[in-house]
Amino acid sequence: MTVKRGKILSFANPKGGVGKSTLSCLVTAMLKWTNSYNSVQLIDADKQGSSISLLQRISDNIPCSHYPISYEYDKLNVILLEQLMNNCRMQTGNVLVIDTPARPDQEGIELLTKSHAIIIPCSNTLAELPITLDFVKKIDDLKARIKKIHPHIVVIPNKIHLNRKHIDDFIKYFDNHDVVIGPPIHDSAFIRKVYTKQYDYKKIAQETIFSDLTNVVNFLKKYVIDEELDEIYRVDKAYKDENITNLRT
Ligand SMILES: Nc1ncnc2c1ncn2[C@@H]1O[C@H](COP(=O)(O)OP(=O)(O)OP(=O)(O)O)[C@@H](O)[C@H]1O
Ligand SMILES: [Mg+2]
After folding, report:
1. Residue 16 CB–ligand 1 contact under 6 Å
2. pLDDT at 20
3. Residue 137's domain is classified under what CATH number?
4. What is the pLDDT of residue 69?
5. Residue 200 lies in a domain
6. If you take atom 31 of ligand 1, which residue's CA is the nearest one?
7. To test ligand 1's pocket by mutation, which of 192, 193, 211, 215 has the most ligand atoms within 8 angstroms of CB?
């Protein structure tokens, strides 16, 4: 199925090591493997460039460029990246995935808000939940200020232990915010190895974690790329307009 407008999905979280690079690469590759889109590409906006090398190792035919935005002298990249996002948005069937750096500055955060959705990997640990919540609040406030439903904020529970019930932790944490909680990705030895071994589609598809990744990709396709979340928010907005109350606290 082709999409209406180009979509930009930014993987972000100011906390380092939550899974932004790993998940943005795997999701980009899996979106490409569905053959559903005219173009799927990845931008690595982190100076480390780790997602470029990972993506090239798991698939050699997905366009991937490096626009690090974390330093003062990278301001030109912010401008170039914004142009690229605008171009992507105007073309039907395009998907642009952006892997963003930890601790982005204000300019970086403002650039992120031009995405269709911000995908936030986060584990249910106290090392990651509070920082993630602060980030969600910041994005939520920016959205409220500019009165936009975009970017959608999608939290992807990551590194979840297999037998641990995780959903209550996330609901408790993000309850008062405009956040959608996606399917979880479990803690996986494969994900730890993916940077060091040679993998391709056939090998990845045999891994147990593949079903988790497939759930996340299907979720992003349905709710973000095929615009079901837009529809839900439009209905919700009409409801709010009719019922006077602003449910946002
Ligand atoms: N579901 C998972 N199971 C096991 N290990 C994981 C999982 N997700 C990520 N990791 C591991 O966590 C580490 C950090 O992941 P990654 O580099 O993707 O995080 P990041 O958010 O991009 O970090 P940075 O902010 O430094 O760019 C990597 O070693 C990766 O293999
Ligand atoms: Mg990274």
Report:
1. yes
2. 98
3. 3.40.50.300
4. 92
5. yes
6. 192
7. 192
User: Quick one: average pLDDT of 167-172?
Assistant: 89
Length of the chain: 249
pLDDT for residue 237 = 66
Structure tokens at 117: 């959705």
Range of the domain at 92: 7-241
In the block, residue with structure tokens 């409801």: 239
CA-to-CA separations, 200 to 60, 118, 197, 204, 244, in angstroms, rounded: 9, 27, 10, 6, 53
pLDDT tens for 102-158 read 999 889 999 999 999 999 999 999 999 999 999 999 999 999 888 889 999 999 999
In a domain, 2, yes or no: no
Whether residue 154 contacts residue 117, with contact meaning beta carbons closer than 8 Å, is answered with yes
Whole-number Å distance, alpha carbon 10 to ligand 2 midpoint, is 12
- Looking at the structure of the chain, the number of domains it has is 1
Q: Which ligand is nearest to the CA of 20?
A: 1
Buried b (16+ CB within 10 A) or exposed e, 34-50: eebbeebbbbbbbeeeb
Identify the band that residue 243 occupies on the pLDDT scale cut at 50, 70 and 90.
very low
Q: For Cα atoms 51, 155, 199, give the angle at the middle one, nearest 5 degrees.
A: 30
Omega cis (within 30) before 151:
yes
| Nearest Cα residue to 27 out of 91, 102, 120 | 120
Ranges 84-88, 171-175, 230-234, most confident: 84-88
Q: Using a 6 Å cutoff on CB, does residue 49 contact ligand 1?
A: no
